[in-house]
Amino acid sequence: MNTGFIKKHFFAIGVFLLVLLRVILNTFIPLMDKTEARYAEIARVMAETNNYITPQIDYGIPFWAKPPLSTWLSAMSIEIFGANEFAARLPYLLLSILIVFLIGKYATKEKLPFYLPGFIILTIPQFLIHAGVVSTDTALMFCTTLVMLSFWEGMKEYANKMWKYLIFLGFGLGLLAKGPIIFILTLPPIFFWSLYTKSFFKIFKHFNLLIGLPIVAIIALPWYYFAEQKTPGFIDYFIVGEHFKRFFDSSWSGDKYGFPKQQPLGIIWLFLLAFALPWIQVVIGKIWKHRKTVKTNSWVIFLLFWLLWTPLFFTISKSLIHPYIMPIIVPIALLVTHFWKELQQKKLVIGIALIIPVLAFFALIAGTFTNKIEYLSKTDKYLIEKNYDNQIPLYYYNTKSYSSQFYSKGKSKSITKEELEKLVNNSNTFFIIIPKKKKVDSINDSFVLLEESKKNQIFKVN
């Protein structure tokens, strides 16, 4: 291929290859326990039962921790493409691609390549990971991006009216993606920017709340109403528990679906430095260099308020994980784009940014050819797909894994020590997955070891 062509279209080619890498990873990497396999199984059950009101963590057991937007997307994809990891992950890849196209215009305004921001964002480790992970964070990121960019565009004189309504679409979808957190992550930076630029009252001139608020309500409230009607108690658990106690009380005992994540105060800043490298370091360097003049640029100030608010908000929380930086990945990419022309050693920074994608590709190749993926992955996919006969019962000693539920299409059943002893004494035929760390006294000559992974073993009992 002509080197001139590659140089001219470097970022477009880079975006294509990075998306292709994510497609390959989405296809060949199994769903991992616990979080990703859990969300995928909730979507699979939704598609199977056709219950699009109440997400279920198991048949008949409601999942109250998150609203349904991400589950809806994965469930619809599973209905079209089947119950597999690629289908479950596809919506998040499509949302990520949509974000790439949404932010490209901000490069062309600077007379830079359209795909430059997309290349930057796809080489941010946190974004690249979540372009192919079944979770609620990518949908929330898309909604916060839609809200913030719609606000920026809508505040312009003679702005396209589309933006004045897209912001309310973003709020409504955000309520369905992860709940009221959409307001917490977007309204404060908008408020602070409007005060800084003395444009607070202009907001009400550019955005018609009498039309916008009903749009938000029409999008989100019907599901909240029907969810509470079908499973009373949901509103109290989700609004009070998940939005307040979860973040400010690390010992909250009401968490039905996980465990409190004990983290040091301020850990969100370390997550930001680690999972957004090398681009967050570029932003810090440029802002420091222009610290005396940057305050006069309303666009940069807007992006800074957007970037800084989320980690500031979560600084006082001890219960959080690294995907909480997802909503501020876009302003990082746009700030780098803004300072791109004056960035020295571009090739070096690009090279550093490509290290993780390249390592991911070669790790996949090595893991595939050496079977390390099958053995080391935190999943029961291979144990089930290579050994399980769905005409015979499948049990999981103690608490079944979400991956065993997904890959057995809901046939994996938890079994206690007493129940296992009873089955063995009755000479039943069945499969059972047993974690290696569990000591099982019932194992005898009737247990035939079929295969094992690093963590689990699958037996056939005759």
Overview of the structural elements:
The protein is an alpha/beta fold. It has 2 domains: 9-367, no CATH class; 380-461, no CATH class. Helix content is 61%, strand content 7%. A 5-stranded mixed β-sheet has the order 4-3-5-7-6. Strands 1-2 form a two-stranded antiparallel ribbon. A hairpin with a 2-residue loop joins strand 1 (56-58) and strand 2 (61-62). Helix 3 (35-49) crosses helix 4 (69-81) and helix 9 packs parallel to helix 11. It is globular. The protein starts with a helix and ends with a strand. The model has no long low-confidence stretch (mean pLDDT 92).
Write the layout of secondary structure elements.
Layout: H1 3-8, H2 10-28, H3 35-49, E1 56-58, E2 61-62, H4 69-81, H5 85-103, H6 105-108, H7 116-122, H8 125-130, H9 137-154, H10 161-177, H11 181-196, H12 202-206, H13 209-230, H14 234-248, H15 267-275, H16 279-289, H17 298-314, H18 329-338, H19 346-353, H20 355-370, H21 372-376, H22 381-387, E3 394-397, H23 402-407, E4 412-415, H24 417-425, E5 430-435, E6 447-452, E7 456-461
Parallel strand pairs: 3-4, 3-5
Antiparallel strand pairs: 1-2, 5-7, 6-7
Helix pairs in contact: 2-5, 2-7, 3-4, 4-5, 5-7, 5-9, 7-18, 9-10, 9-11, 10-13, 11-17, 16-18, 17-18
Transmembrane segments: 90-107, 163-195, 207-226, 266-284, 296-314, 320-336, 348-369
Domain ArnT-like N-terminal: 33-238
GO molecular function: mannosyltransferase activity; pentosyltransferase activity
